[in-house]
Specification:
alpha+beta, Chloramphenicol Acetyltransferase, about 25% strand, 9 helices
């Protein structure tokens, strides 16, 4: 008995998926609930499993776009059938084709009333580009003589000299191109980013933060922190806590527009931008305002690992009230991040560079980071955006405030 394996429903708003990869090959034996393929939607990657044990018969190919409910493959009961060998093209037929290729006739008298040219006449005709078949020979048996060839040369119309082909300068190195179809995730990201630019009044404000206090705190307690909580103490937990504290004073930054209403949130679900193999994804730290630094670090590692392994679920990427993106890990000094709609603001972190700054009347070298806050000016005023960013700066430069909540 054979059963059809179809594309399962993977989300309320998802109508089609792309078959990104076959884990098993056609004719392979598969077990019940064994992963046989990967499906990719515009939001996440899903695994397709076998609904019974048997032999896999592939219907859809990798890269195909399939509607929900479309047949992906069949599974036949029984063991795997031996893989069919590709039929080899008969080499004998090729040899026969080559052997049967027509050979030019040595004699032209069969087709024309003229004879064959003498060696000297043939040389003249060849040099002047005159067809021997068009020359009537006056020699024995219609043979074309030297005189016939000279007369034919004079009678033949002069050919116009062909223009010289333009000389193309040689280009060193390879100049190949390749085209690759955009994945559903990449197409969705592209559409959303363009929509945000066109539909919001996006503006960006900047500030800088002295990272020395946090770096000193990490150096002092990182070993005890890891020993107690089993996770390293990174920068993301400090920034997440600072955002949550600043959102209490500037709630519009954590709000969103819904039609003609502004929705304010009493919680902070922080989306963290993660670079995954198939594109940028933004998993969410739920209720980050109630988490400790250790809980945030554990959640960040868990979500980042899932993102890199394409194991994130739609629920883990749906929602979010504020986004943090860290371009500094790639060496970015400054950027203007784009809002993650329908949110109203996003904080951009950048690389840490030691720079001279003025501190208590003296020039000192400090590890500095530029911060960028992009926000929707329809809901967030300049006073709120600047005040929010200044508050984040104060909390980061005095980490004790994060622990005391002041």
């Amino acid at each position: 008995m054979s059963i059809e394996i179809k594309v399962p429903p993977v989300g309320e708003s998802i109508t089609e998926v792309v078959l990104s990869r076959w884990v098993k090959n056609d004719g392979d034996a598969v077990e019940m609930d064994e992963v046989i393929a990967e499906l990719e939607s515009d939001k996440a990657t899903f695994e397709l499993t076998a609904e019974q044990a048997g032999t896999l018969r592939i219907v859809a190919a990798e890269g195909d776009t399939l509607a929900i409910g479309a047949v992906v493959c069949n599974i036949e009961e029984g063991g795997a059938a031996p893989a069919a060998k590709a039929e080899e093209a008969p080499k004998a037929a090729v040899a026969e084709d080559k052997a049967a290729a027509p050979v030019a006739a040595a004699k032209s008298g069969d087709s024309y009333a003229t004879g064959t040219p003498s060696p000297s006449a043939g040389k003249i005709l060849a040099e002047k580009g005159v067809d021997a078949a068009a020359v009537k020979g006056t020699g024995v048996d219609g043979r074309i003589t030297k005189e016939d060839a000279l007369k034919a040369e004079k009678a033949a119309p002069k050919k116009a000299a062909s223009p010289a082909a333009p000389v193309v300068a040689a280009v060193a190195g390879a100049r190949g191109e390749r085209r690759q179809k955009m994945s559903p995730l990449r197409k969705t990201v592209a559409k959303r980013l363009v929509a945000v630019k066109n539909e919001t009044a996006m503006l960006t404000t900047f500030n800088e933060v002295n990272m020395k206090p946090i770096m000193d705190l990490r150096s002092k307690y990182k070993d005890q922190f890891k020993e107690k909580y089993g996770v390293g103490l990174g920068f993301m937990s400090f920034f997440t806590k600072a955002v949550c504290e600043a959102a209490k004073d500037f709630p519009a930054v954590n709000a969103r527009i819904d039609g003609e209403e502004v929705v304010y949130n009493d919680f902070v679900d922080v989306s963290i931008a993660v670079s995954a193999p198939k594109g940028l994804v933004v998993p969410i730290i739920r209720n980050a305002e109630s988490m400790t630094l250790a809980q945030i670090e554990k959640t960040v590692i868990e979500l980042a690992t899932k993102a890199r392994d394409s194991k994130l679920t739609i629920e883990e990427m749906t929602g979010g009230t504020f986004t943090i993106t860290n371009g500094g890990v790639f060496g970015s000094m400054m950027s203007t991040p784009i809002i993650n709609s329908p949110q109203s603001a996003i904080l951009g972190m950048h690389n840490i560079i030691e720079r001279p700054i003025a501190e208590k009347g003296e020039v000192v070298i400090r590890p500095m980071m530029y911060l960028a806050l992009s926000y929707d000016h329809r809901i967030i005023d300049g006073r709120e955006s600047v005040g929010f960013l200044v508050r984040v700066k104060q909390l980061l430069e005095d980490p004790a405030r994060l622990l005391l909540g002041i």
